[in-house]
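Sync notes, pocket subgroup
Present: LS, DG
LS reminded everyone that the earlier model was apo-only. Rerun requested with protoporphyrin IX containing FE included. Inputs:
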Amino acid sequence: MELFLFHFRLWGTTLEQVFLGTRAFGTIEPRNLEVILSTDFEDWSLGARRKVMFPYFGDGIFTQEGGDWKRSRDLLRPQFLFRQYEDLDVFRQSMEDLLSVLPSDGVVDLQPYFFRLTLDVTTAFLFGESVNSLKHDVQGGQADFAESFNVAQDYIAKRMRLQDLYWLVGGRKFRKACDTVHEFADQIIKKNLSRDRTTDRENHQYVFLDSLAENCPDPKELRSQIINILVAGRDTTACLISWTFFLLLRHPSVLEELKAEISSVLQGRTDFSRSDLKKTTFLPNVLKEVLRLYPSVPVNSRMATKTTILPVGGGSDLQSPVLVPKGAAVAYSVYSMHRRPDLYGMDAELFRPGRWTENMPLYDDPVNAKWGYLPFNGGPRICLGMDFGLTEAAFAVVRLIQRYPNMRLPATEKVELVGVEKQTMTLVMSSTNGCRVELSP
Ligand code: HEM
């Protein structure tokens, strides 16, 4: 990500690259993003994404375009109403599992635990039953699923980077991982659809799968949609939680302010609901600031379906329109855009949640205000799980802080400037050295 940032600093907020004869553009200009993601939505496609991801994702919202995508979007949108998780019960059991596997004191890397937490939560939400990857004794099908889920995704990330040359990465191990995930999902779907739902109904428990199955009778499509959402929701949220603790531990005064808010709003209660969480004001700004500096999807791209125009970035003053020929890709890095000092101020590279209550240059222009902060994308393809992911992250942050009020950065941990630490890019961006923390009750 630092390399992208360096290029944008050197060449301006919109640039053109010719690599092995292929022309591609890069932009971190809110005006251009508005056009690509919203105003001229029809002129842009997902490019190679469908071909790259198809063996794993199949036909689902993430890989579809045009009418098929619209149908999926209409089908899935109603399933994300927040009243389905208002009581936070869908997060509670997995969070308790996490708290029970963590030691009461000592140094641990929280990052891998967060990936297991979000896998368990998302499967609980989708299937009505968690894969329980946090439970030590999980063996067999569930463990294979969790492992294959990671393997298949690593392959997809590598294929994604190669774009049109994606077919160079694949083979038996990839196919086997995809098959394992598909078979496991099929089994769990079959089992869940045939089980007696009386208790769920009596407890008013909402199960995404049941509700989706009513409108999606084709089992293969049902499986694909479920896998698409599982992938969309698991790693993104795990990265958000992990970067949050990474930053909080390195900014003790922010952690103290957050702790104070949590105790004053929740008064030590652990049975709080989503509306209780909504009473916090600093916590949402902490998460907003984490997603500014570490957006889970730091780079993304679209391909022009016809010769089209970006409104700014061309000419000698870089303010003229740019002609983008049909078939050219435009990469956009929200990671770099979110660090622009002309949008966020001269301290744009510092972690300072308080900035969200101040007058930032971002707010001077309505287009910048709307399109200059995009961790969840924008326009018709904006993230469907935004509220779910933010609620899950808020819940996890609160419960961990309540349980370990004295957590701190281990003395041996390296302290570097924000953005200088090693980052690992798969489909999302995580911390290469994890999120090590010294726990004490
Ligand atoms: C912090 C957490 C999350 C972040 C930062 C995030 C970010 C994103 C981004 C950037 C996209 C746009 C991808 C693109 O079009 O290229 C997206 C799409 C999507 N997200 Fe999320 N997401 C998060 C959590 C979730 C969760 C928890 C779910 C579901 C349980 C979810 C479901 C989806 C779906 C279904 C789409 C596809 C929407 C479409 O193409 O119409 N996301 N998300």
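DG: The pocket of protoporphyrin IX containing FE is lined by residues 61-62, 73, 122, 229, 232-233, 236-237, 240, 296-297, 300, 375-377, 381, 383-385, 388-389 (CB under 6 Å).
LS: The mean pLDDT is 91.
Action: DG to write up.
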